[in-house]
Specification:
255 residues, single chain, alpha/beta, Rossmann fold, binds S-adenosylmethionine
Length: 255
Amino acid sequence: MGPKGDSFEKAQGGEPVSVPFQPPSHIDRPPVRISVAEGYRLWSQTYDLEPNPLLTLEFRTLSHKLEGLSGKIFLDVGCGTGRWMVEAVSRRARTIGLDLCREMLLVAAGKSHLTDRLVQADIQCLPLRAEIADMVMCSFCLGYIRPVDQVLAELCRVTRHGGTVLVSDFHPGAHQAGWRRSFRSGSDVFEIESYCHTADQLVDAGRMAGMRLKQVLEPGLGEPERHIMRGAGKMDLLEQVSGIPAVLIIEWQRG
Ligand SMILES: C[S@@+](CC[C@H](N)C(=O)[O-])C[C@H]1O[C@@H](n2cnc3c(N)ncnc32)[C@H](O)[C@@H]1O
């Protein structure tokens, strides 16, 4: 059953800042650490309103993987506001999105063709039958789960044999370099509690779940993200982080 209603209050003045965290001079206070539940309840109001360079980088790296999905079943696990669902629907995939945060789902529900395709659920225990999906996407969500073994077992379980599982997340190297999962709301910067999983940990967990590793990608911010960084007044950061992997992407095939 999906969430009812598709209205939510438009956000006022929030700005995603999922880039290396160095407080700009106009922000005096340190980031406020908040839980995942509280963080996304708050961030839902502004998540879609400002361009985010990490999401842009991930999208341009991964979107071609959705080619040929017409008529196939696409699951977006940890779908948030339905970013990947919109793409899958535009490619005529039969699409379902699941997320724990009601407020994020309500934003997704306001988008064309997504309303009846959303389920509030924990990705550690998906309310779906086995082998239902041709492709499963889990985008920027695993970092909120510890440990990840159970989640990867769930992603594998709901994928048909020969189907594809795609996982992306904030790169652990970027975390080491001081980047944080943070966003601005009003005059405050919030940092959402998260965990860092290395590529090796995820690859091992995928193998234990019974999946065949196809590809590991570790793209860094580049020229296409330049205008976003410029718009956010963060050109100095772009120079600082060029060459550092920003997103970790892993693709498996279910055996
Ligand atoms: C950074 S957002 C990513 C949303 C979307 N995948 C995207 O890439 O735009 C992370 C999402 O993971 C969801 N999430 C975190 N923990 C979860 C869990 N245990 N089960 C389901 N969703 C979860 C949050 O509610 C949030 O919507």
